[in-house]
Amino acid sequence: xxxxxSAAVLAAVTVIGAATPAAAAPSPSPSQALPSALYGDKDPRxxxxxxxxxxxxxxxxxxxxxxxxxxxxxxxxxxxxxxxAPYRADPTAACDAKTPVDTNQTAAAIQALTALGGHxxxxxxxxxxxxxxxxxxxxxxxxxxGASDTNSTSVVIGALxxxxxxxxxxxxxxxxxxxxxxxxxxxxxxxxxxAFAFQPDKKGELAATAxxxxxxxxxxxxxxxVVRPGEKxxxxxxxxxxDKNKKTPEQAAANGAAYLTKALAKNxxxxxxxxxxxxxxxxxxxxxxxxxxxxxxxxxxxxxxxxWLAKNAAPWAxxxxxxxxxxLIFAAHATGTNPRDFGGTDLVKQLNATGxxxxxxxxxxxxxxxxxxDLFGVWWYVGVCLVAGVGIGFLFSGRRKxxx
Length: 404
Fold this sequence. Notes:
Layout: H1 8-16, H2 48-61, E1 64-65, H3 68-76, H4 103-116, H5 120-132, H6 150-162, H7 177-183, H8 210-220, H9 249-265, E2 270-272, E3 280-282, H10 283-296, H11 299-312, H12 314-320, H13 322-334, H14 347-352, E4 360-361, H15 365-368, H16 372-388, H17 392-402
Antiparallel strand pairs: 1-4, 2-3
Helix pairs in contact: 2-4, 2-13, 4-5, 4-6, 6-8, 8-9, 8-10, 9-10, 10-11, 10-13, 12-13
């Protein structure tokens, strides 16, 4: 899969029956022009709210204030019951039974709007809706009533945490989201020890996937898409899968992290099997794995894989757009890396260019890390002002007016 969107696009493809991932969908025709407030220029039918949410959340994470109309567009996508569909071309039309609402778009919108602030009524309705469609095993599927899967359950956990809820207390039939995740965690036998499966297959067997494992680690830790740069965990050194405490979310997260570390150790990235050809690097899942490992404290492997992404992910992100740039920004943030100088690419600038110009670009810790080059720029500017000698107030006023 080209762009890892938690389960949002993977499950959309499964549920809707589309053979092409949303990131590769054709651009709309001129008669189907996209809203000017929307990020990305590809067909948004399967991932409009998802990529908008990731874009806004990533901008907020690096201190950029998104365009007001982009935030308003996201808010207006909500249905009266609190849910979100991937894309509603006419948000004034009421949602009905045919509106394809889902848990992933809803959870992503909650995380973005909670971070931005000022949307408690919107996020409160969305949380209420998510609780209403929780499965009896404690988890969530992509669509209401669908079988629980690791990705959907984990992204909802992240939304609940962001909204101030305690996921372990959100129960259905006496089961919490963590109970659902534990049923999808593999044991410690075999090559896939410690991994998470997306869902059981028709025979009830669990098959490991890196995509689900990255999501499962974050979910088991109660984390959302954005995690703070973590401190190195001594417990993570030489970690191996352990069964003795398997029934705790903490141990499941540790086992999943061990699986990801092993999978990444060979060449720094995860791979995506492509039918009829050799496996290809999976940039999106690698970025998500970096976030998961950083959240768990496995900073060594996270940093190594982040360096691989910095060298290799720019073309992939350019092709796949705002959600891809957001994933890389989340990975950079989780490892304390400057997203404005990511292997020579300014991820923030590239993300901003996929949608409306943001209101302001705040100063971030990552920006401070630019060092001497910024100091040179400051003294150059001071020199220009001194040479000019007059009109300094006008000059600064003009600079403020020109800021997006």
